[in-house]
Amino acid sequence: MTLETTVNKSTVPAIDVVAMTGCLGAEIRGMDLSRHLGNDTFARILDVFHRHCVIFFRDQKLTPEQLAAFSARFGELDVHHMTEHTFPNLPQVRVLSNVKKDGKTIGITNGGMHWHSDLSYKPRPALATLLYAIECPPQGADTQFASMYEAYAALPETTRSKLRGLYTVHDRNYRYSALYPSRPPLTAEQIAKVPPVEHSLVRVHPVTGRPALFVAKDVVSHIIGMDQAGGRALIEELEAFSTQSRFIYSHKWRPGDVLVWDNRCTLHRATPYDPAYRRTLYRTQVKGDAPLPAN
Ligand code: SIN
User: Fold this and answer.
1) How far is residue 94's CA from residue 131's CA, in Å, rounded to a whole number?
2) Is the CB of 112 under 6 A from ligand 1?
3) Ligand 1 within 6 A of CB of 140
4) Of ligand 1's atoms, which has the minimum distance to the CA of residue 271?
5) For 132, which DSSP code?
6) Looking at ligand 1, which residue's alpha carbon is closest to its atom 8?
7) Residue whose CA is at the smallest distance from ligand 1 atom 7
8) According to the model, what pLDDT value does residue 186 have?
9) Pocket test for ligand 1, best of 115, 143, 257, 283 (most atoms within 8 A of CB)
10) Atom of ligand 1 nearest to the CA of 270
11) Ligand 1, atom 1: nearest CA belongs to which residue?
12) Distance between CA 282 and CA 270 in Å, rounded?
């Protein structure tokens, strides 16, 4: 953990930043996200977001509307194609929860336990995702992030040059039933809403200009132009390489945490916990652009 205070170049107070690992994750201290932040302050937050890819704020007290308002500073908010478990009149905010009311869980339960980048199976995948913790188990249930910048940079140049120019197919339905055996399979209508999409295997971040791997074995079905077995072997090898502990930040949740991650340069996954504990988070997602291919 390293302390970093952004240089105060204007009349706006510097913000306190504590970096979590060399490559990923930073806590920003001293912010009350329920208040409107000035443009200079938000520009500093955005700068930390672009440098650290995953940022978080502790001890926040937000209404769903305030979470949506802060989230919208990062860009236009998405309404997920599966609209259950959203707030009435606020479909941008979804609930993740294992808590039951009248025999039904109040939110999405145990989603995202495989490595993925949000909505990568759409032509314009998510730019950022925000999670706000309402209640969480005292242990387990970390959300883990892998830096796809660092993973790409750590590959030998001979491998990187082979990967640049390759395209893959991201398919929501590819392993959906295997990942979620307790859920009904996607309906034909749901599948039709998210048909398989082609993306480059190495993408360039539109703000930082840095290249990042864009691959996850449970969402990417194959590599275009490669035979199925060879393509699968490469996809699985790249995910295993990218998710080594040296590329990972693991977030230990506390109630009141607001966490924001950049889907353009990270993978993430939820991890298990004892279901005897309650876990509820509110989630928003910021729309992104079509990924830029690396040449
Ligand atoms: C997700 O957004 O993929 C789930 C993250 C989590 O519940 O920890």
Assistant:
1) 10
2) yes
3) no
4) 8
5) E
6) 270
7) 270
8) 87
9) 143
10) 8
11) 112
12) 14
Element (H, E) at 144: strand 143-147
Edge to edge, what strands does the sheet with 86-87 contain?
Answer: 2-5, 16-19, 26-29, 54-57, 258-262, 128-135, 280-286, 90-97, 86-87
CA angle 255, 261, 267 (to 5 degrees): 115
Reported confidence tier of residue 8, pLDDT bands at 50, 70, 90: very low
Q: Are 27 and 56 in contact (CB under 8 A)?
A: yes
- Residues 187-201 have a mean pLDDT of 93
Atom number in ligand 1 closest to CA 279: 7
Specify whether the CB–CB gap between 190 and 111 falls below 8 A: no
Whole-number Å distance, alpha carbon 227 to ligand 1 midpoint, is: 32
Q: How many C-beta atoms lie closer than 10 Å to residue 138's C-beta?
A: 11
Summarize pLDDT for 266-291 with one digit per residue, the tens: 999 999 999 999 999 999 999 999 99
Weakest-pLDDT range from 51-55, 98-102, 287-291: 98-102
Q: What is the pLDDT of residues 147-169, one digit of tens each?
A: 999 999 999 999 999 999 999 99
- The reported pLDDT for the residue numbered 2 is 57
Lowest mean pLDDT of 70-84, 93-107, 149-163, 189-203, name the range. Answer: 70-84
119 CB contacts (<8 Å, ≥6 apart)? Answer: 78, 125, 126, 263, 285, 288
Distance between Cα 128 and ligand 1 center (Å): 13
**Structure tokens belonging to residue 204:** 């360039």
